[in-house]
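Human: You know discrete backbone vocabularies at least as well as I do. Show me how you would write down a chain together with its backbone fold. No explanation is needed for now; the record alone will do.

Assistant:
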Amino acid sequence: MSLLADLKKRILIADGAMGTILYSHGVDRSFEELNLSHPEQIQNVHEAYINAGADVIQTNTYGANYIKLARYGLEEQVKNINQKAVQIARKASKGSVHVLGNIGGIHGAQTLLESDEEIKRSFREQLYCLLLEGVDGLILETYYNLDELKTVLQIAREETDLPIITNVSMHEPGVLENGVTLSDALKQLEALGADVVGVNCRLGPSQMVTSLESVPLLDRAFLAAYPNASLPAYRDGVLFYENEPNYFTDCAVALRNQGVRLIGGCCGTTPEHIKALVEGVKKLAPITEKEVKVKESVAVLSKRKHETETLADKAKRRHTIIVELDAPKHLDITEYVQGAKALKEAGVDAITLADNSLATPRISNVAMATILQQHGIEPLVHLTCRDRNLIGLQSHLMGLHTLGITEILAITGDPTKIGDFPGATSVFDVNSFKLIELIKKGNNGISFSGKSLREKTSFSVAAAFNPNVANVKKGVQRMERKIKSGANYILTQPIYSSEKLIELKKATAHIETPIFIGIMPLTSTKNAEFLHNEVPGIKLTDEVRAQMKATAGNRKLATSESIAISKELLDTALDHFNGIYLITPFMRYDICVELVNYIHQKTKHTSMGVAQVEV
């Protein structure tokens, strides 16, 4: 009898976790590779679940795709691993249970370098391997990203009429990470052709039952649930699950009462848990009617009123000046405040503060930004991915919003090995592209996990761009990806060539997003050579280096020459761009004050537009 025919008549019990058992036996590498090297070990796990009463098992192929196997150098073994997995499951089943081909999700909140097209190719390759070897159906599980699951479901449905189970995963009960309710998500999957829709991983039985309370019985698709054993405990560097398997007997009844027809286990579950599920539903028939609990909606307030224009809006209509004045590396802020006040009096639109640039600790830029606000100065706070995991980033952004700080530069950040503490850990849960997307979720009132923030944030997000590359066209394509992710404006690395500025204007003529041109005055020939030779992303022209070299040993002359070089660059930048981003060298805010005054004098009688460049 087919899987769907069975589900029409009764509740089916699926298997539990494969990885949990292998991990408990000391396996700490690719579980999927064991299909080739230790097939008997995989078969034993399948048989243990079948003996516990499972009606459905899934192949040991959750991560058996090109992208995930490449982490172990096994990307060329996709066909062999998937093929062998089906053979092992078939051998263990002896025709007595349904065998599902397992394809796990790839997208998550963490950094993902692969493009959507690469993910599609990877999915298709694994899909064809499983279909050609002969499975009774497919299970697409642990998909946090609903768009990814919908995309691969459509691909799978075009290729096969076999039953397809689609299981989403949630960080928060009842809502996906994009803010879509579980009920709506499952209806969308049913509409795209899924035969069974449900939930797996992350949540234990209690939270899963709560999530399903607001999900009605669907018109065609059956419901599925694969809860974790419990919340994991952590001891001596190892995650483990502590609940009693017998608890799953009552959980099976609770899930059945929510209309679930396919019940299995995810992380932490063992054959004992599956045996308990079997015991829980052995005398129960599936329900055909259900009273849906209406989930109380949480109102999301409109975003806070932003009393002033964003920097991006200003740059669209007039010349706009941002000056970087980094927080001190010590606790004496007297000079810093003096510099900030001087820049304000000169007429800057905002002061921007790096987030421990070059991986060197400074006073928290949020603390200094708060002080700037007290002096009526708009702060633009840099936010790196290096120092905070997803929990810290979410908390940090909530704090910024609460303080009324709305301008953010989202950057990946310099790795810790180049800074004062090379032994410190770089986090990099996400990169700048993903961080921009997550920040913009907050503007819709949604947290990283999909939970309501109960208020929309008002962040205007800048992104960094390095024009000092051999192939500017490729660099601009990277800029466009950041804009697509949600960047409102762009800040460039320092530029030391008028020709480079014109080249950049030509390369970005089609881009409407404001671009702020980075100009960092030099302080000496030593400073010039250091930047040119040792700082990634910065290159000086031979002419500029020669000009600074001629001032060696004369600080006053070096300052004068530096200002002259900067003014020449500003002349070109102001002709072609509205945004100027001055970077203060070594707290020499006096240099930036003079340059700000120069910008105002030069633009005082000009129109708000910028010159056109023939492209």
Summary: The chain is about 40% helix and 15% strand. The radius of gyration is 29 Å. The first strand starts at residue 12 and ends at 13. Residues 108 and 144 are 6 Å apart (CA to CA).
